[in-house]
């Protein structure tokens, strides 16, 4: 056997025999194919049902682009806010009798510039509006003190500070000033009106000072001045206790002669 014949015989023995090989089809057949079609059909039906339910919910709840969001309930409507740990941080409850908000800080802001109009927390309540108007007939009732640098009435309206059943006290360590630039200042009371200065003085500065309804003293019947004509000039006298009274003026002082009025006080 030559070398060429040996190589040829060896290659023929190494070639695979294909006359007995079987061919296997590639793909999904039989019950597997039917199951795949069934799951695809089921998924399609589920998508259609979900789409129909979504459209129905949007229609029933009136969820539209141009209309506002309306939440309705036969009882309460509660909106909760929670942090990343699931803890409740804020709650808004709208009920038949009240609207309750539970949070660390409650704010109401203006829609134009975002300015805080109202804010409330555990320490204080702040009203940032330009004007606070109370229209109730009984006004506003405060259980404790109210701090404000300015109290002003509306234009063409009177400002009235009144305590119907108790006292009205105005105090200031550096002074209290009451002025009426274009009108009168009146102070009336049922009993005594006290003007007291512990260290300074009471200063009355006006062109005319009038003391009305002062009692008028009279001379004893033996006094020669008792038979005088109608008196038009009087002398202002002071009792030892500070009471003022009038005495008919004479050539000299007549306060001593009509001092019997001091016994009535």
UniProtKB/TrEMBL annotation:
<dbReference type="GO" id="GO:0060047">
    <property type="term" value="P:heart contraction"/>
</dbReference>
<keyword id="KW-0206">Cytoskeleton</keyword>
<keyword id="KW-0812">Transmembrane</keyword>
<keyword id="KW-1003">Cell membrane</keyword>
<dbReference type="GO" id="GO:0016012">
    <property type="term" value="C:sarcoglycan complex"/>
</dbReference>
<dbReference type="InterPro" id="IPR006875">
    <property type="entry name" value="Sarcoglycan"/>
</dbReference>
<protein>
    <submittedName>
        <fullName>Sarcoglycan zeta</fullName>
    </submittedName>
</protein>
<keyword id="KW-0472">Membrane</keyword>
<keyword id="KW-1133">Transmembrane helix</keyword>
<keyword id="KW-0325">Glycoprotein</keyword>
<comment type="similarity">
    <text>Belongs to the sarcoglycan beta/delta/gamma/zeta family.</text>
</comment>
<dbReference type="GO" id="GO:0005856">
    <property type="term" value="C:cytoskeleton"/>
</dbReference>
<keyword id="KW-0735">Signal-anchor</keyword>
<dbReference type="InterPro" id="IPR039972">
    <property type="entry name" value="Sarcoglycan_gamma/delta/zeta"/>
</dbReference>
<dbReference type="GO" id="GO:0048738">
    <property type="term" value="P:cardiac muscle tissue development"/>
</dbReference>
<keyword id="KW-1015">Disulfide bond</keyword>
<keyword id="KW-0963">Cytoplasm</keyword>
<dbReference type="GO" id="GO:0042383">
    <property type="term" value="C:sarcolemma"/>
</dbReference>
<feature type="transmembrane region" description="Helical">
    <location>
        <begin position="36"/>
        <end position="58"/>
    </location>
</feature>
<dbReference type="Pfam" id="PF04790">
    <property type="entry name" value="Sarcoglycan_1"/>
</dbReference>
